[in-house]
Each structure stands twice: as structure tokens, then as C-alpha cells.
Amino acid sequence: MATTRFLSKEDGNLQQSSLVTSRKQLFRDLDVTFAAKPSKEISVKKDAAAVKQAVKNLILTNHYEKPFQPFFGGNVAGLLFELADDETGSEVEEQIVSAIQQYEPRARIINVDVNSQPDRNSLAVTITFQVVNTLEEVTFTTNLSRLR
Amino acid sequence: MATTIKSTALDFNNIKNNLKQYLAAQDDFTDYNFEASGLSNLLDVLAYNTHINSLVANFALNESYLGTAQLRSSLVSLAEGIGYIPDTDTASQAVVNITVSSDETGKELQLAKGTTFTSSVDDITYTFQTNDNYFASDAGGGSYEFQTVDGSNELILYEGTQKTKTFFVGETTENPVYIIPDTKLDADTVTVQVYESASSSTFTTYSNLNAVTTINANSTIFILKETPNGFFEITFGDGITFGKAPTPGQKIVVSYISTNGAVANGAAVFTPSTTFSDGLDTAVDLNVTTVTNSVGGDEKETIESIRKNAPFQYATQNRMVTAADDSALILRNFSTLIQDIIAWGGEDNLKPDFGAVYVSILFEDDVSAATQTTTKQSIRDLADQLAVISFRLEFTDPVITYIEVQNFFQFNPNLTTETINTVQSAIINIINNYFSNNTGGFNQSFRRSNLLTLIDDYSPAVLSSRANIKMQQRIVPTLNANNNFDLRFPVGIAIPDDNEFSITSTPFSINGRQCTLRNRLSSNVLEAVESSTNTVLVDNLGSYNPGAGTISIVALNPSSILGSDNFIKISCVPANQSAISPTRNEVLVYDPDRSFASGVRTTALN
After folding, report:
1. In a domain, B311, yes or no
2. In Å, how far from its chain's centre is CA B390?
3. Cβ proximity of B255 and B182 under 8 Å
4. Does residue A22 surpass a pLDDT of 60?
5. Residue A30 contacts B, CB cutoff 8 Å
6. pLDDT tens, position by position, A111-141
């Protein structure tokens, strides 16, 4: 019977499966805007975009909104109805940091900047975070304002 | 790895986890595990929807069966489906005599329905009133006593407030339903009168469907039901085959008593709210004499009672055919007065009596002898209506057999901080509670081992226990006359022993000499023995039959009974002390005066 001998891949056996050289996408999420692609398929958010969407979802969610998880969310909307004083910005910042640390392990916060705009009844929030594992830095700004 | 969604786990988190497991097997999306992701939000919606649907399905299914429904409205509806109308609140009723003394003679007086009286129970004042018109004629010298149309002077006062609802029948619509927005309505007091027009003074009285036995197109019946929100509604026949229906232009007047129920039981003194003047020129006071304190008030039937009674009532089909039908229907109609009831066919009687049904009733403690008599007559009337075949209804009183418990227990004081006296008192309480919870009704047995288990469990310091059990019945002899008694116990009596007496009694006197009754050792013959000298005073007072459990006392001629009671307690040792099971009309009751618990100290640890 003939005998076949093989080298390991590390020893130069290139006849075996090729080495993986491309980085696999870590995070894939639905685009919650449900915008359709030209192919009519649903859009997908990937990697940093997926985490960014999740962070935005998180801080815009109020307590008691998510079923069976009453304390999930940034719960910042309630603060918009409080008197705008020197503490408001830091309170919002604190709540955002706390929510992200508790519910979004993929984001490592670098900076949260809250710009209070009392005359417009709104807060401009800029969050800078790093996506864990990729070291990619993401910054996004969102405006929180009262609807009534 | 799961590739299909499990349908058996319907809790929200389980559903969501199943969806996550499904997604884990797919390559398209990977963020399902992060709670802030869009995918997680989508899973929340899917899981919540499934969760709510499964809950609704679960509730709906549970509420569809008598055995599992939790909402009163569901049980009422299901019970109605099998012809069972749950009891409403019941007004407490008192029986009184009402008289009037007036200078005006020869008058005909009428005490109108709705005349009110007040009475207090536990310092709370309740209103009682008549629910019928009563009449009085001058018995001479201006003395009037009100009577029913049947000539009885025993008038019934109902606790509660008389209320009236008037409906005008409009254009014919399909199935009009008349709502009575009152949760405290007493269904037994509802009267429905249908007037020809809004201004007419003549009316037709309609009857409750429950009270009629035949229905045709001309039957004047109404149907009273509890609505899902606890109110009541009245409907009428269809005017074709199922009784008359009020026609447009007619007026329906519904009157009833809205009652407070059981809290008004026990009212004894009734004071008229106003003076009386109807038929007299000058108002006078009503004189009220209480015949029976108020009894029979009760709350709306509980859901557990509906769950239990509806199937039995359904089985009777509102007809008295079997002995069980009698129990169910009597209990259904007189539940507020009856604590327990048992019925059996004459063929099953101790002395077979074919063609008869025997009924034994334990009335509630506060029901007077007079009310018991009238209730029994009402039961006979009910039987006449509902019996399908001819039979005699025989009432037989419950036979009470008292149980005496002599408890002894081993007690190690080193294992507890309680004293032996405290433990003895606690064990007496345990015995009391055992009998309260397990005996006192028909077919309720005494089991010694169950009692001893409770006693042993009281404290680690109670190492073991035993109990001597005796059965006891009571005789009320006529003093200074020969008395014969035949006693029958639920179980056999211990055979004569050469050391212990199977039969004993409480003391009484014969010719002034204090003695007790007991059996002769090694014999079933009874004798009276002087307590102080142990001398036999009467050597043959009858005998007992161990196998049959009977005692026959002959020619007992006591001159007095010692103690404050007017009866003599005759005690006997059961052949089998471990269990006493009554049959038919026998009931077991605890006698605390002849029972005790006694501890024996020991240093043993187990």
C-alpha cells in the first residue's frame, strides 16, 4: 500500500487549506431604520456601525421601555423635563456612562460631552468610544430634545 | 444546536432565548446577544408578542372550565350554563310579633310592605323591614295584632334597604335586558310587577324562573342573573314558547332588598323607625316582640362554593330522585341555615323502610327550634314540588357521640424552655383544634394516629404519646321514675374485661345514695354502684351488646343528677380505639370536660 506523508501548514504544506488572511466581521446587526438596499434586502450594520447604532439605541431608551428589563437604557429623556441647571449636563453624562458600561460591553468609552442648550430645550450629546477588539474609535453626536 | 423554535417554553425569557439559539445557528446576524442591538429589540417584540399570546390562550383555557376558572364572572357564567344560579347575598331574617293598642276600635289596619325597624349588632345599627303587607283586626278594646294573609302572627323582618327600579318598555328590540346596578341584592326578596301602562294601577306579578315547574307561552316569569361586574340583570320570556314578554308601553317595577348579609345576624331588639297611623286617625307606637333573633344572613356564594355545588346541582336536574338529590337541593335552597346535611334511602336505613328518604340536618348554632320547624316544613313543600316519584320524607335528628381523649405523653424538660404545664395546655389546644377541623359533620371520622402525630410534632421535648379513647352519649332521665334508654354508638364496644370497665357514667343518685352506672366485670350486665362504698345498689340495669355497639338501660330510677347538668354521660370504650367512623346521621363531637393531657417527665433523649 502506498504511503502519503504530509508536512504541516507551518512547515510549508501549501496544498492544504489556505491561511486565513482576511479579518472576519465581528458584529452584524439589523439596520433599525429598515432602509432597503437596491436589491430589496434589508440593510445590515456591521462592526463599528453596529456598535454605534446599539449605543444610540441604548441612550435613547428610557427605563421601563424594554420588556422585563425595567432599568435598561440611558433614561435621559426624563432629565429634559427637569430644570436646566449646572448639574443637568453632568447627570446626563453620568447616566450615559453607566448605561454603556452596564449594557454595551463592545464599547469602551473615551469621552462623553454634553452640551446643554436650555433655550432650545435640548441637549447635544457627543460620545466618543472605542470598539473593543478592533481599537476603532467612533464619535457620534445626537441631540436630545423635548417633543412637547 | 437548536435549529427550530421550541413551542413548549412560553415564558418571555425562554422564548427570547429560543430565538437567540435559532439565530446562533445562522450566519446572517451576530448581535443578538447584545441587549442594545437592533436585533435584540426585534427579538423583544417577537418574544413579547408570543408571550402575551400564550398567556391569553392559557387564561382563556383556564377560564373555560368550572374546575380551573379563577374569575367569579367566568364561574357564574359556566354555572349558569348548567342551570346553576349562584346564591346572592341573603338578608338576615328575624321573626317578630307586632301589636298596636289604640283608642280607636273596630278598625282594619294594614302594616305596609317596607315598614322599617332598627336594631344593633356589635354597636352597628341595621335597618330591618317587612317585605309583605300584614293586616290586623280589632281583637277587642282597640287591641290589634298584625298577621300574614295565612293568619300567622309570626312576621318576618328582613335586614336591608328596600329598593325599587322602574323600567319603561320601549319599542320592541331583540332580547331587552334590564340592569339592576346593585351588588348587594337578595334574590329571594325580588318581586317583579308589570303594569299595563305607565299610569296604570293594575299589575301582573311575575315569578322567578327558579320557582316555577312548568312554562308555556303565557307563563309570567322573569330570569334573574348575576352580571360579570357583580350587578344583576332581569330578562323575560320570548312571548312565544318561553313565557310572556312585557310589551311596549308597559311599565316594569322591580323591588328588592339590598342587604348587608351575615353581619346583621343576631339582632334581638327591634325598634320601629316611625309611629304607625295607616287606618287610624291618631298615630300610635308599634309594639314589637322578638320571637326569633335575626339569622340566616349570608354573603354572596363564594367561587369555591360555586365550583363545588354547580356540578352536584346539575346532576340533580332540579329533581329529587336519589337521596343525593335531596341533599343537594335542600342545601341549595336553605344553605344559610344549614351547617351540614345528609340523606339516605330508606332501604339503607338501619331498619329498612322502603319508600322513604331519610334526611338529617345539622342546623347552624344560632337557628332556633322554631326556625328549624318551619324550615323542615319548607323542605317538605320543596320535596312536594320537585319529587319525581312519590316517597315519604323523614327527618331524623343527628345523633351526637362525644369523644373523650385521655392523653399521656413522655416529656423531657431538658429539651425545651417550656414547662410541663404549658405543654399540657398546648396539647389540649391541639386536641381541640383536631376535633374542630376534622369532626362535627356527617361522615367525619376520628383517627387516633392522626391526632397523636399532631401531638408528637408539637415539640422535640414530647418524645412519645398515647391516648385512651372513649365514646359517650347523654341521657336525660325523668327523676324518680323508671327510665329506659337504648343507645347506639357508631362502632362496637369493647368486650367485657375482668379488670377494666367497658361502660361507665357520670354520678347520679338512687334513693339519695351517690352512684355511677357501669358494667359488671367480665359481664355485659349493667349495674349501679355506690361511689363511696363500691356497693352494688341495683344489680341489673340492662346490658350492652359489644358487637352491635348498643347499650340498653332498663328501669333506671335516679333521684337526682349530680353536678349542674340535667343529663348523665354514659361512656364506653370502643372495641377499636384507633378509628371511629360515623355513618348516616351520626356525628362525632369532642367533650373537653372529660378529656385531659398528662405529661410524664423523663430524661430520655429519644
Report:
1. no
2. 28
3. no
4. no
5. yes
6. 999 888 878 878 888 999 998 877 888 898 8
The per-residue pLDDT for range B564-582, each reduced to its tens digit, is 888 999 999 999 999 999 9
- Which residue in chain B is spatially nearest to A106 when comparing CA positions? B34
Same domain, B178 and B151: no
Nearest CA in chain B to A59: B36
**Domain hosting residue B483, numbered range:** 398-606
- Record: contact B35-A67, CB cut-off 8 A: no
The pLDDT of residue A82 is above 80: no
The distance of A8 to chain B (nearest Cα, Å) reads: 30
Q: Is A130 exposed, middle or buried (CB count within 10 Å of its CB: 0-12, 13-18, 19+)?
A: middle
Domain boundary (B396, B431, B458) is at B396
B42 shares contact with chain A (CB less than 8 Å): yes
How many C-beta atoms lie closer than 10 Å to residue B256's C-beta? 27
Interchain proximity A30–B44, CB inside 8 Å: no
Residues B334 and B408 in one domain: no
From A29, A69, A105, residue closest to B38, measured CB to CB: A29
The reply to whether A72 touches chain B by the CB within 8 Å rule is yes
Instruction: Give the closest of A32, A72, A106 to B38, CB-based.
Output: A32
The stretches in chain B having pLDDT less than 70 are 1-9, 172-174, 213, 388-390
One domain, residues B139 and B276? yes
Q: How confident is the model at residue A12 (pLDDT cuts 50, 70, 90)?
A: low
Closest CB from A67, A69, A104 relative to B34: A104
Please list, in sequence order, all residues whose beta carbon lies within 8 angstroms of the beta carbon of residue A89, skipping any fewer than 6 positions away.
A114, A115, A116, A123
**B360 shares a domain with B230:** no
B321 shares its domain with B407: no
- What pLDDT, in 10s, does the model give residues B438-447? 999 898 999 9
- Average pLDDT taken over every residue of chain A: 81
pLDDT reading at A20 higher than 50: no
Q: What pLDDT does B1 receive?
A: 40
Q: What is the pLDDT of residue A18?
A: 47
Nearest to A28 among B29, B35, B36 (CB): B29
Helix/strand/coil for B464: strand
The verdict on B65 touching A (C-beta cutoff 8 Å) is no
A36 close contact with B: CB closer than 8 A: no
For chain A, say whether B13 makes contact (Cβ under 8 Å).
Answer: yes
Q: Residue B315: phi, psi to the nearest 5?
A: -65, -30
SS3 B312: helix
B550: enclosing H helix or E strand: strand B550-556
Q: Which long-range contacts link B200-207 to residues 24+ away (Cβ below 8 Å)?
A: B200/B251, B203/B253, B206/B236
State the Cα–Cα distance between residues B264 and B272, nearest whole angstrom.
Answer: 17
Shared domain check, B582 and B490: yes
Coil/strand/helix, residue B190: coil
Measure the N-to-C terminal CA separation of chain A; round to a whole number of Å.
85
Is the Cβ of A88 closer than 8 Å to some Cβ of chain B? no
Q: What is the pLDDT of residue B486?
A: 93
Indicate whether B389 and B488 sit together in one domain. no
Task: Write a three-state SS string for B328-374.
Answer: HHHHHHHCCCEEEEEEEEHHHCCCCCCCEEEEEEEECCCCCHHHHHH
Q: Do A26 and B30 touch (CB under 8 A)?
A: yes
User: Chain A residues with CB inside 8 Å of B31's CB?
Assistant: 27-29, 50, 54
| Positive/negative CA dihedral, B434, B435, B440, B442 | positive
